[in-house]
Amino acid sequence: MSLKGKTAVITGSNSGIGLGVAIELAKAGADVVLNSFTDRDEDHALAAQISADHGVTARYIQADMSKGNECRALIEQAGRCDILVNNAGIQHVAPIDEFPIDKWDAIIAINMSSAFHTTAAALPMMRQAGWGRVVNIASAHGLTASPFKSAYIAAKHGVVGLTKTTALETAEEQITANAICPGYVLTPLVEAQIPATMKEYGKGRDEVVRDVLLARQPSKEFATVEQLGGTTVFLCSDAAAQITGTTISVDGGWTAL
Ligand code: NAD
Questions:
Q1: Does any ligand 1 atom lie closer than 6 A to the CB of residue 106?
Q2: How far from chain centre, in Å, is Cα 73?
Q3: What pLDDT was estimated at residue 106?
Q4: Residue range 7-185+223-250, CATH number
Q5: Active site residues
């Protein structure tokens, strides 16, 4: 599978799943644009490393995915976007009646609305190129719910809905739109939840991982960023040309329960 000549823009890709997806796309030959809201030397160094490791063009573009105009500017600055991976995301956990309004607004903006803005900016470029792939990193929480994650779950269900509409609006073109729904993946976002969960349950790390975090993941294993990158590369392949408007779960059986 060669993605040589394609440019992939991956939002929120200076760590975790986004970075893993960027690396797998680069391994498959795509030029990549990394993104986050920071503008540190190490962000640009990540892009330089991917370029050196995989012989592709890799750039880092700062843009804050909580702001619609910056989402659109990211795509314009990339100049080309054959593959769009909407991955930027944050989490906050609280009961609905205590959920801070600013956290609700930020999660809806970063986890959901950013995908609308980047897709709106990227579709004309894909149409111009006559080919395109939109891959939205949703979540098992785009298909199921858990208590205390109202904003995240609303946003991820929204992303799944946006994915379906994107697919229908592009159905007769060589463009597909799909959502990947990961279960738990051990990334900084999940790592950050472990100490508080240990405290809450009065359990050690291993017990918390198996009995709390992976309670709903029958495989009792985290999904890996490499697996999510591989799934993204598959969705960009010719074999996936008729896969559009759907979700692919990478969740160790979570949604089979
Ligand atoms: P992470 O914290 O490692 O990565 C999140 C990325 O988003 C980072 O690169 C961060 O810099 C970026 N980001 C945050 N706010 C941003 C903003 N305002 N503008 C631009 N970028 C911003 O987390 P992750 O686990 O790799 O999560 C990536 C995506 O995968 C998220 O959408 C998350 O909801 C989803 N997801 C994660 C898991 C999991 O278990 N880790 C499971 C299902 C879905």
A1: no
A2: 19
A3: 98
A4: 3.40.50.720
A5: 152
